[in-house]
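To the structural biology subgroup,

Please find below the input and predicted structure for Paraoxonase, which we are adding to the shared reference set this quarter. The sequence is reproduced verbatim from the submission form. If anyone notices a discrepancy with their own records, reply to this email rather than editing the shared folder directly, so we keep one authoritative version.
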Amino acid sequence: MANKLLVPLVAVAAVFAHFVFRPRLQFGDQRRAVYNHVPGTCRAVEGVVHGSEDIVRTRDGLAFISTGVRPAPVLTPDPWYLQGVGKILLFDLKNPGDAVRELKIEPEGKSEGLEPHGLSLYENQESGEIRLFVVNHHKDGDRIEIFRYIRQSAILRLIRSVQHPLLYNVNDVVAMGTDSFYATNDMYSVRPWLKRLERFLSPCWSNVVYYNGSDAFAAADGFAFANGINAPPSGNLVYVCDTGRQAVQVFQRLVDNRLQMEREIHLATSVDNVDVCPDTGAPV
Ligand SMILES: *[C@@H]1O[C@H](CO)[C@@H](O)[C@H](O)[C@H]1NC(C)=O
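Predicted structure (tokenized):
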């Protein structure tokens, strides 16, 4: 008798748990509050067919777009996204009538296995060199690809590929120099089912890593889900979006490159990428 009752009870509990916890399991509580911001007239740009995770812009209006990242295993896989091919696209904001174009990657074989996520630009004021830092979820492990953008031929030439045991669940990157950067690890667990558990329990094991050109260390930790990261041109502050806490955290960059929390800006929504206002350096 007890067994007969148990079956429907478990079924009801499972359905209940599914509805209560699924949104939280998928992405924090992002479905709860939706604010409608309309920055101006919007127009669909042709040529981005498998979504985009990040977009960065040079001072003179070239926008680099990452596309083709596969959904995290904790999310319900959408067959359409699984067909995506990793690419870096370019859109010229000064010629908005043009479509996006795919940037060629050199050396050629390096575009294979590219699954680009977060992006960051480093523009050298003196030499005019543009470097694009790309979070790459390569099948053999996460890495940061550092490219030089060759304007004349619209080519991204790989300068170096940074792999490090501390770069394991990289979401976004912010370049601090020609070879140095901060990067977010959005979770600690690497296995899909452990990720599910981590997202559910939210033990705050996500961190920010600093790479100085030769070695890396954790510069800040205790994040619920460190997502987008950016820094104003002054270089003394770092902004980190914690999706789990629904806040942008502002850090002071210390002399040894560790990050000290200064304040937290609560936004009541699941923040992802953060940009910087070029005039004021404020997070936007
Ligand atoms: C990078 O960090 C390592 C380890 O802390 C240190 O030995 C090395 O000198 C640093 N390199 C630079 C360029 O600061």
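Summary notes: The first helix runs from residue 2 to 27. The chain is about 15% helix and 40% strand.

Regards,
Lab coordination
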